[in-house]
Amino acid sequence: MSEVLFSVIVPVYNVERYLRQCIDSILAQTYRDFELILVDDGSQDSSGIICDEYAAKDSRITVIHKKNQGHTSARRSGISNSVGQFICFVDSDDQVGDSLLQNVADIILEFSSDVITFKWIRADMNGNPLCEEAPIFNEGEIEKEEYFQKMLSSASLNSLCKKICRRTLFDLDADYSEYYKIRSGEDLLQTLPIIYAANKFYYLNKALYIYRMNPQSVTHIFKKDDYKALNIVRPALYQCMVDLGYDSYKNQAEFFKFYLWLLRKRLFDYCTNVTPDEKILSEIYEYPLTMKSKKYCHLVDMHVRIELKLFFKKHWKLMNFIFKIDKKMTDFIRKGTPKAIADDVMRRVRFPLFLMTFGKNDGHLVVSQQQKSFLSREDYNKIRPYLIDTITYDIDKTKLKRSK
Question: Is the pTM of this model over 0.85?
């Protein structure tokens, strides 16, 4: 092909520790027909200097230095300056397998696909592999509605880093500035116009991207206003579903089932990290999609259903109380346990543990070592209809133990 096939875009911000590994993995590609655009988003460490170093040695590399406006802004700048037929995004603390571009080039040549999606490998901070993502589809061409349905029911297709897309699908003239401050769901917002415009999808059942589990990355650090993404990102997905004509009852049920899971997560993160403000809880309660989601509560797991029913009934103090218990139990199980094992255990035993925290005889819950703080009879009566069987557990500041 006479034109450059791929533009690889890397937003860069204060990643001097990992940046060389990232760039080296891209330059090691067995497929050579690509340009690499490094967008230095106002880094305050040596990241910008490292980018310039590499550009001086390889003519395929272009460096853009700009003021800090966030991940989305950096990506948009990279796209605007790209010339490749297809766009590939790589985060600057991640790496890619050396056959990524060759594998995708082969698919493009054979199937003329618009969007090629692949798997990733999760790695620790040192780049050591932890686990490979489970397949999302069988390998091969995927119907557009099937692809979109998976977006309704999980976040597995949200990331732009695990897909390579035809450049003409990007809405290059759109103003994304209102999304620059969104930290959760910004990939989905950028993905939706691509999926709407695309016609041919291919799923490559190979792990070709190495995702570093960085606890200091933006997506892993709590911020008080993270909940606002619920009223920006999810409505955009819902509207896209309607515009594509995919708003069947089944698809709406899948959408709201996942919305309820996200709602519970946002409420949990908010309540367990700050002292809850009832004005903010009221704001979340009044989101249009939150109101619509009520009738789908029966679709979610029991412990989530209990917590959400308390939210919808505005028993917010009790909900907050239960979230803190849930966090205590989760931390107890995960302490010193590998994440994959802990997650599996939590899936199987969280609800039984949740029930165990309520007193069987007097409806009291011991929440301190001194056994002086109890769940009132009034609050217990509010939640008792949702419980099945209970025994009492003591919870103190450091451990969970069975009462004598």
Answer: no
